[in-house]
Amino acid sequence: MRQYTDTYQHKGLRKQLVDILKERGITNQEVLNAINNIPRHYFLDSAFDKIAYEDRAFPIGEGQTISQPYTVAYQTQLLDIKRNEKVLEIGTGSIYQTTVLAELGAKVYTIERQRKLYDQHKNYFFKNKYLNIKFFYGDGFEGLPTYGPFDKVLITAAAPFIPPKLIEQLRPCGMMVLPVDEGEKQRMLRITKLLDGSLQEESFHNFSFVPMLTGKN
Ligand code: SAH
């Protein structure tokens, strides 16, 4: 059985990570607090214990990665999460980004298309702490029509285009943050659905994500 301990050393490394994120331009204090509060090493194989607080992505199996902390902070900051908002996340992966959203008080609906990664939620360390997370196995391109509309939508894989069904499931004035393919890199976009249903698009920095794929696996 894996032992989960959050030592002073882990806490110290986490504080250093938060300082790096601040230097890189993350200003939302609640996002920084969430990252400071959540032991990222619990979401990684114990072999990564000593390096879990480096600002980089790591493999989590099935050819997927846990996003870099800077990317998690960046996307979460763009989403401007308020307590009790309904948030749809595409790409549960390690559950780390999901946990950041839950720590901010969102009601999180998260979808994963890889069965093995989805199944990990059964052993999720914080399952009794974050009762505000619901896990789904499915294709994120379809969203969750019966649970919508959502205040916010977050895609954590490189989308080939803006998924139309996810726009439909966004409530008026709702926002979606997603990296959209531009070859090697993806452009981070924030789409706001205006009251008349039209879309406002803002474009931010380039990132590198694993691809958003159709169907289940
Ligand atoms: N938020 C995760 C990121 C994992 S990487 C974390 O920080 O750990 C992206 C994840 O998106 C992978 O787990 C991948 O399997 C998943 N994914 C890719 N396409 C998807 C789709 N269409 N629907 C749901 N999940 C998808």
Offer a quick outline of the entry.
The protein is an alpha/beta fold.
How would you explain this protein's 3D organization?
The structure is a single chain. This protein has 217 residues and is α/β, with parallel strands linked by helices. The chain has a single domain (8-207), classed as 3-Layer(aba) Sandwich (Rossmann fold), CATH 3.40.50.150. The protein is 25% helix and 28% strand. Strands 5-4-3-6-7-8-9 form a 7-stranded mixed sheet. It has a two-stranded antiparallel ribbon with strand order 1-2. Strand 8 (185-193) and strand 9 form a beta hairpin. Helix 1 (8-23) packs antiparallel against helix 2 (29-37). The protein starts with 7 loop residues before the first helix and ends in a 10-residue tail after the last strand. The mean pLDDT is 96. Bound molecules: S-adenosyl-L-homocysteine. S-adenosyl-L-homocysteine binds at residues 64-67, 90-91, 93-94, 96-97, 111-114, 117, 139-141, 156-157, 210, 212-213. S-adenosyl-L-homocysteine is lined by residues 64-67, 90-91, 93-94, 96-97, 111-114, 117, 139-141, 156-157, 210, 212-213.
Notable traits:
globular, 217 residues, 9 strands, seven-stranded mixed sheet, single chain, alpha/beta, Rossmann fold, binds S-adenosyl-L-homocysteine
